[in-house]
User: Fold these one by one.
Assistant:
Number 1:
Amino acid sequence: MEPLHPGDPRRIGPYELEARLGAGGMGQVFLGESPGGRRVAVKVVRAEYAEDERFRRRFAREVEAARRVGGFHTAQVVDADPEAESPWLVTAFIPGPSLREVVAERGPLDPDAVRALAAGLAEGLAAIHACGLVHRDLKPGNVIMAADGPRIIDFGIALAADATVLTSHNVVVGTYAYMSPEQVLGDVPGPPGDVFSLGCVLAYAATGGGPFDATSIPAIVHRVLHEEPDLSALPEDLRNLIAACLAKEPERRPTLDALISTPHSIEAPAPHPASSPDDAVSTHANATRVATREQDAPAVAPAGPAPVGRRALLIGGGVVAAAATAGVPAALFLTRGDGTGRAAPPAPAPRPKGLVSPSGSLTVSDVKSLSEVAVTADGRTIAAGGLDSTITLWDVATGRVLRTIKKTGWVSALAFSPDGRSLASSCSTPGLLLIWDAATGRLKVNVRSGEFGLNSLAYSPDGRTIAGANPDAQLFDSDSGRRLASYDLRHSGVNAIDCSPDGRLVAAGVDGYYRKPPGNTVQLLDGRTLRKRGQLVGHTANLTGVAFSSDGRLLASSAADKTVRIWDVATRRAVRVIKAGEATVRDTKFSPDGSSVLAACSDRTIRIWNAATGVLTSTLVGHAQPVERMVLTPDGRTVAGVGGTKADNTVTLWKV
């Protein structure tokens, strides 16, 4: 706790502010006092997120869910105003040190205290899960050791277990040393993910250290995925209970009911099979290390008396950085439909073959995020943009920045016209379609596209129209920006769109927001009228990418179900289903000759399969974060990828 700063507000709503409690990636947390004299924690959202209408919608939705959380072992949400100029949330203030502070100052808890802690935290998680929420960041710094029992705080970052993303972006927030394997791999964890984190917290309470502590992010990731913790010094019942919570597979972890009512009967699972250098999982981990080794990864914080921002605000969508209070923080962008609350066990990862390191990169100063990328039809120019309201154009051959286009708004989609003279972009706040002169950067068209920004853009082959997506499919005149047609998808959301080579079809990948029909499908629409011509059904989660082959006979689609499907467009049937194993697929493309299909993946790789056989042929590694979007030059020899929420101003290039 520290005094208010000169620029801090003195009052939020009816609450008088007294001091600072901490700061999170989304805002500042203050100690406040209610009109009735009760102390509360007041969490105020930063201005840059307050300006995003999509963020406000998600914030309001999650506040309403969090309000329903009851139970003795959680900090209650007592008030909120998502419509305020700076949205705010108020929770009960829980006096007392965090578990991290207690262990740092007094050492590990005795076994009886750990058993009591386990019961209390399990009860708190059960209250959270009962409201359809998942905490996603349970760690020692988020457990307050109050005089009357432990309390779980900061469940405001929770994601509704059955929700999908409101917009093009979703966030997985957590701390690597306390994350479940499925969360480390970029999936959205279900309730079993919180059970794994609970096991990590109990191990910390009992031993004074996290069960997967290491000195670097890759080492932590490897231990979480492949190694068993050493719990030999604990009493048998505690050892069994914690080991069961730390099972690698979600379905092998105990339920919260068992942890509350029959903890002594829980048995430790059989050890996870050890990885060998030649097996698929170990090779997958090696690829992850290649991709992360150049980051300046801080060591795991020791259990010392470091300041703990234990009431950091981490609610809602947008770009979030977790408070680094216990281990190494992670905030991974999961765009275009990764918001389901499933807890399915990770499938075995296909063995990465032909690991290909980057051949180069394109960078620009004063830009912190690149999440969209496009390439001209001649392959000479690449454009990229993201949250920084800037689009940068590079000469691919020399890596030289050709120009930067400022004041673009949050860039949520990019597409070059077939002749390369125009560059279309979408602004998310507010929803705008912008068309730029690619040679000069001059804005030629500026029209409202709807309530939300477009998640994807695609020019027709003749360049006369632009197809856009979100929340419905739309068709615009490329000269004037006038809306020519639309197809009502009942606001279920569209994450990807593409035009067939002959211009007759538009394919729209639907995210199935809130399970609305026609959810999790590819809608095939008329290229001129957007009237429905068919649909492709088979994916079980949000669609993240669609792409026609160069001859238009095939279509590839990717989804959060960790598959790429190849469809025969004429028969509307899937001719091949390719599983990406543990990785969530964010985008898909065909090679120009149609012989290969590519997938941008959450494990920082781009995978290339033979389209005819489904055999994995190459794995592109070395991008610093999960790859969100990718493009291929027309000769098929260069792949460019972007993506990530941490500061990253790089387009990574590979020669294939």
Number 2:
Amino acid sequence: MADNNNKDSSTVQELKSNNKYFNLPLLVFFEDARKVFNLDSIGRELLGMAIPAAMAVAADPIASLIDTAFIGHIGAVELAAAGVSITLFNQASRITIFPLVSVTTSFVAEEDTLKKITDIEKALPNKDNNDESDSVEKNSGDKNIVSTNTAKSCSSLDAISSSKNNKSKKKKKQIASASTALIFGTILGLIQASLLVFAAKPLLLLMGAKHDSDMLILAQKFLKLRALGSPAVLLALSMQGIFRGFKDTTTPLYVIVSGYSLNVVLDPILIFYCKLGLQGAAMAHVFSQYLMALALLVLLMRKVNLSPPSIKDLQIFRFLKNGGLLMARVVAVTFVVTFAASLATRLGPITMAAHQTCQQVWITSSLISDGLAVAIQAILACSFAEKNYAKAKASAVRILQMTFVMGVGLSLIVGLGLGFGAGIFSKTPSVLHLIKIGFPFVAATQPINALSFVFDGVNYGASDFTYAAVSLVLVSIVSVGIEFVLYKTKGFIGIWIALTIYMALRMLAGIWRMGTGTGPWRFLRG
């Protein structure tokens, strides 16, 4: 144990000597900025995970965006009904999904890494036999990797253990976190489905829908059908979290793209050809979700033994503790977005139709950065488990710099796209007028939104769940008050000003933690 502590201390000392910004942690964000897109080992690992993850994360909102485009051609009332229902469904899902997926990714990555370290240490020669046992060279394919008893890199561990995996491909991994995640996913999915089906009307009324209005009647039917897919949604996403923990973002991508492609094909068939309208859009979505869940389960069962050795191996209380913290965070964050949609609904169907379009584009474009968040979460969970602080710092800084550049690019793309393509979502002049008022905010907030989402991944990867929860609860409380005041004084445009302030506060909360060198980042200060 003393030997391990000495090695950890020497790692931090080495980091200090190589970091000229060590006493000013805030400046670490600008370190090696010119290398932002270098395809070195860090760049390749980040992009190799981030690109498939971004495509997978963006698939759902893109499918919803296509749904919105199809539904918008039925009528403004139908678009408003779908808008309030999708918002309610998505926010309810986020309350359960994001804590589950985030905790699952970190725990699986940590557990898998520690198992690899243990296996390699057992395979090393006895330390008493030879002084060279502290450094055993293994061949990784393109170069030799020096593997020590402690502080091995994630990529080195994967390379070293690959030969073992090749010899025993039929042997499945035993990861207790994976089994626990599927249990929670099933239970939460059934609870969510029951809640949305039996409480659809009161929940929609809370969202601002008017009693006995055409919009309320349509929204109820749409929401109840979408709710039937909740178990599949939560199971599919919990399995995505497991694959991410293994640093495999490609397998889920293939399944998700296939599933949502089917959704897009079924949309016009069920909506227009079968004349099912809103119900057809909901049915297409539910069918694709169950297909994706089944495909992911089959693929996961080939890789992992999903039956834990015993009940005590399940990490129930660890999931509950950290998942509970993140659930409090997500409830607060979700309330801000849901409250904004509720305020827009109170301004009438036309305003809600415009808000739904702006919000869907806002979420879709911003969530592309979630691919970067997924990548950094898995890498940081692995690095902190190994106490490889140098890699943790370098990876976090690189991903944040990439995120800012990507956010600026998204801002330009979204601004031009909505400026010329607003007519795709509606043909109603009054709706188009409001969309054009909202789209400057949607475009301008892209860099802020991207950094906010990636800072979430940084916090989760460092297992900084308490700070992630407390900071966002405080930000949300302030933001809800701002939303209400600006809604009263400026209406639709006030809602979007408030959402811009909200995302800026989220970003600043992320900058504060790492930039001040507190919590898991205290090693940046010495």
